[in-house]
Amino acid sequence: MTRTGAGPTTGVRRRTAAAALVLGLSAVLAACGGEGGGDSPKLSVSGAYVPQPPTQDMAAGYVTVTNKGGAEDELTSVTTPLAAEVTMHTTTGTRMKQVRSLKVPADGELRLATGGDHLMLTNLTHKPKVGDKVSFTLHFATSDPVEIKVPVEPTTYRPKD
After folding, report:
1. Other beta carbons within 10 Å of 38
2. Per residue, what are the HEC states of the chain?
3. Closest CA to 136 of 41, 42, 56, 59
4. What's the CA gap between 40 and 143, in Å, rounded?
5. Are 79 and 53 contacting, i.e. CB atoms less than 8 angstroms apart?
6. Model pLDDT for residues 17-58, shown as the tens digit of each residue
């Protein structure tokens, strides 16, 4: 009894088709920004500091988030044990406005700096002193949270660019 189409070449064709399917799926996964893909954010944080606050209950925070990836992300919140609340603000001219998130552009940076976008820390647990280190956790829309230690600098401190 013979089966039609079940000869030795059928097994070869099935293995070839399976190999082609695996190869095709691998290409699709790579194109979707899998491991090592260029279509995902690649974030790093630098230049963070908190000027020593002049009052007991409020402080500002500054940081630069650099994205070397091919996709944008958003800073959605910041938490710290120093403050009950951290809000994000944009500044245009002399007008400050609270926002829900700040964009971190693909192949770009989000710079929080004096006179521009910044963090406001309110209801402080204590007034930090120059030389203290404050823990911050930055939360993003797609990337994992980033934990950093932020130095407290003199009130008049201005970073060198």
Report:
1. 12
2. CCCCCCCHHHHHHHHHHHHHHHHHHHHHHHHCCCCCCCCCCCEEEEEEEEECCCCCCEEEEEEEEEECCCCCEEEEEEECCCEEEEEEEEEECCEEEEECCEEECCCEEEECCCCCCEEEEEEECCCCCCCCEEEEEEEECCCCCEEEEEEEECCCCCCCC
3. 59
4. 9
5. no
6. 444 333 333 333 333 444 444 689 999 999 999 999 999 999
Max CA pair span of the chain: 95
Instruction: Decide if 71 contacts 106 (C-beta within 8 A).
Output: yes
Asked if residues 62 and 119 have their Cβ atoms less than 8 Å apart, the reply is yes
Which two structure tokens, joined as six digits, stand for 139? Answer: 């939360």
Q: What is the 3-state secondary structure (H, E, C) of 41-87?
A: CCEEEEEEEEECCCCCCEEEEEEEEEECCCCCEEEEEEECCCEEEEE
Prediction pTM value: 0.76
CA nearest neighbour of 79 among 61, 94, 106: 61
135 neighbors 152 (Cβ within 8 angstroms): no
